[in-house]
Amino acid sequence: MSRRYLTIWFRHLTTDQLAIRKPELKGEPFVLAAAERGRMVVKACSAAATKRGIETGMALADARAILPDLDVLDNHPLRAGKLLRALAEWSLRYTPVAAVDLPDGLILDVSGCTHLWGGEDLYLREILTKLRSAGYEVSAAIADTIGAAWAISRFGQISAVVEPGDHMDALRSLPPAALRLEAPVLERLQKLGLYQVRSFINMPARVLRRRFGQDLLTRLDQALGRTTERIEPIQAIVPYQERLPALEPIRTATGIEIALRKLLDQICQRLFREGKGMRKAVFKGYRIDGKIQQIEIGTNQPVRNIEHLFKLFALKIATIAPGLGIELFVLEAPVTEDLSIQQESLWAAGNQENSVIAGLLDRLAGRFGAGAIHRYLPDQHHWPERSICEAKSLEERPAINWPEDQPRPVCLLPRPEPIQVTSPIPDYPPMLFIYKGKVHKIRKADGPERIEREWWIEQGLIRDYYRVEDEQGARYWVFRSGQYKDDQPEWFIHGFFA
Predict the structure, then answer these.
(1) Contact status, residue 164 vs residue 196, Cβ threshold 8 Å
(2) Which fold has domain 1-237?
(3) How many Cβ atoms from other residues are within 10 Å of residue 77's Cβ?
(4) Sequence ranges of the domains in the chain
(5) Domain 241-368 sits in CATH 3.40.50.1000
(6) pLDDT per 10-residue tile (average), the chain, 498 residues
């Protein structure tokens, strides 16, 4: 599939934004100015100021000579970049690939997107209508190359949609400045009477290089598609993404669910063809007021079962606030893994219980958050803090079996916590202990179990562990650090039994 690009030119970017924020400026001649080489220079003009003959780069004194009552505001050099970034993020509802084109434009890769709006003409009309209704004066063009679209959006006098393969003819009547050339090159072309691209487009490359330098050749090749021109998207491209524009703004939960099911069906079909399953999915709703509503889910293993994925999203659909309506739905799968047909069959009804466990864990994670669920495996260490490790997935298997010779607590504290104890004689379990201000009287006890440090890793005191039960029936794993012959040995609680 050939690439198609849309470039958007904001004729009065920063001044339009100020007029949107301050309605009293709308239709008024004003400029943004900044100091440059000891004098004030016009950096941006409103549309009304441009009509009066004021131009960007003009000395402010000359501008005031033309229009004495001209309003002058301070120019902020970072304003254009920030504004274009925000506009590029807004344009992501129309394409996943949007880039900033400083100082006053955007570049969108619209390949494979325009059919969702009924074709390139309707697609372009939709975007321009939205921007113009917001208060921006814009022009735009769609073509096979970035260079051709840029040229036509700023200098073209023909249709804003250039048919595939027609970009060379569309460029011929344009001035050399349409190729984004530097001022010295433009001056040399002007002196030689080369006022249109048609005057030199067919000249031999060696002649153009010798007379005008490599820059002209590069820009010409980019515009004609002989050289690939790359853009830097504002967001990383998600390889698995499906889009669904709404004919009318959607405001109901039922409408959102219908859109979600359709997108899940589309993306899961693609994942099936490519032998993939999703581990993370993001569902976005682009509202007509420009705001984005977003929910996401994660799974413990790769999944492309539509019903299971829909149930996970259903837990969060109520958090979506449609406002005045959602005009575009997007489903992304930013994290995927290989998933064979045999693995997919595990989700069939009545099959292995592993799928039931995975489904339960996914629903719990969706309700309470992924950080609320952990799975641990035994590790090849004797020291309690290092005897377990957290599993990365449901399929991960332990290298060793769980030890069965000595019982271990269901809940092991990440770090032992100090307690105060009363112990009758050495090597006896405590009669009571105080933990977090509460006194626990011991009714039953078992131990000690001596655990020595792994000397090849670290040095330190031994531990004598006891399993104790208080009068309420709660059971704890406590230990004494060191022996009684050591000065004032300390006691700690390290875990809780079921």
Answers:
(1) no
(2) Alpha-Beta Plaits (3.30.70)
(3) 9
(4) 1-237, 241-368, 411-496
(5) no
(6) 90 94 92 91 94 93 92 92 94 93 95 91 94 94 95 83 92 94 93 93 91 92 92 89 91 94 94 90 92 89 88 90 93 87 53 57 64 73 82 70 80 90 78 93 90 86 92 93 75 91
